[in-house]
TrEMBL record:
Pfam families: FAD_binding_3. Gene3D superfamilies: FAD/NAD(P)-binding domain (3.50.50.60). This is FAD-dependent oxidoreductase. It comes from the Bacteria. Residues 4-344 form the FAD-binding domain.
Amino acid sequence: MTAETRAVVIGGGLAGMLASAVLARHVDRVTVVERDVYPDGPQLRKGVPQARHAHLLWSGGARAIESLLPGTLTALADAGAHRLHLPRDIVWYTPYGWQTRFPGSQFMITASRALLDWVVREKALANPKVEVLQQTDATGLTGSAERVTGVRVRDKDGQESELTADFVVETGGRPSQTPKWLAALGLPEVEEDVVDTGIAYATRIYAAPAGTPATFPMVNVAADPATGRPGQNGALVPIEDGRWLVTLAGTRGGEPPTDDDSFIDFARGLRHPVIADLLERAEPLGPVQGSRSTVNRRRYYERLETWPAGLLVMGDALAGFNPVYGHGMSGAALGARALDTELTRNGLADGTADAARRAVAEAIDGPWLLATTQDICYPGTRNHAKDPRIAPREQDAQAFADLLGTAALYDPVVSAAAMQVTALAAPLSSLESPHLVAALRKAGQHTELDGPPFTEAERAVLEGDSAPALTGA
Ligand SMILES: Cc1cc2nc3c(=O)[nH]c(=O)nc-3n(C[C@H](O)[C@H](O)[C@H](O)COP(=O)(O)OP(=O)(O)OC[C@H]3O[C@@H](n4cnc5c(N)ncnc54)[C@H](O)[C@@H]3O)c2cc1C
């Protein structure tokens, strides 16, 4: 008889649930260590305070989650999540102008973060191989610099114990303690890059006006990094139960207020007032909530010369991005899929953790670059990164980005190419494809849209004369 194999996951957030789903395919038993008590339904909890704010799940991440936990997207739809086709279902004021609403092949899931987490958690924990120790804190790693053999934990009564494991995945999010825990095992300091725009978030949930069509689009007014002013943006996101979740954000020097009275004023001061106009017709369902947990921080575990067998770090614990790009959850999902590939290739062999740390780092490199290379354009950004790629664009590269951004507004081929990168469904390098270059050459004259491209029924919501509908938003 062979001995039972066991994996331990530190932190049962979204990345932890996806890691558990992967590990359950390759070991006999998975134990998740989670500090919080899980709510019974789609509710907020202490360990994920950012859940109050807009959480967009791009198709690159959504497809990865579906491949690891089949049926998740249907379960989300059944629970009221919206599936927005991109760019058809978004009224989007990009830095270059209004985006034409082409059908497109990418999509985005919009729902409250609490609902997203709940559906994924229900799916992951339905696997009988996965157990959770709630109200339990991971306090360190056991083993040596050559091999991690388990996790030290403390339960709610303060009792300390050790969980032995063949494989440990740390997904404790931004407060990750792994650099400290590795130092205790005798490993050197982990290199880290930080790019901090100082961006602050303010979010308020509204009831959509009566009669709003169920297909009402997301509305997004993006910041324009070329203005030299702090980046201010807003997103009105349709979520379950006929609600609009509205997140406003501003980089250092342009932060949104967090008092209820000034919320709409800030929205009116964006590059276009459309979100403010819509909010005048909607009913707030609670107070404004703020967040400043937004810094781009990447830890380069893949650069350590030696790496203990049996350990991997994933999700925000590995790399947290400025949330304005909406890539955190998708990055975690792509990382989980990379782990699955490595475990499928080599099982629990000694080299798997080493290969997985490199594969996971590669999976998050795209979103890391998308966020940081854009963020350094805003005044007041503190760039503490040593990554030489995080530098102002050369003139040619900027000219290409401007051409791409402008042509994507009115050319469906260019739009699809740009959208698949934004949705993390294709790598940044796909923008070099001959297919796209040819489309860019052809993209010549165009007529700019002179205002938000709403349909007649959507415009009726804006103008306050929408007919009562049978279904809510
Ligand atoms: C304001 C804001 C808006 C965002 N918007 C988006 C968006 O639109 N789209 C998107 O994709 N991403 C977005 N993100 C990013 C997203 O929230 C994160 O990428 C995602 O939550 C990462 O998941 P995670 O599981 O790695 O970490 P978390 O969700 O932070 O979960 C960590 C878990 O570990 C537990 N834990 C931590 N330490 C321990 C320990 N020592 N012992 C036991 N348990 C522990 C915590 O209780 C928690 O359950 C946003 C982030 C912020 C701040």
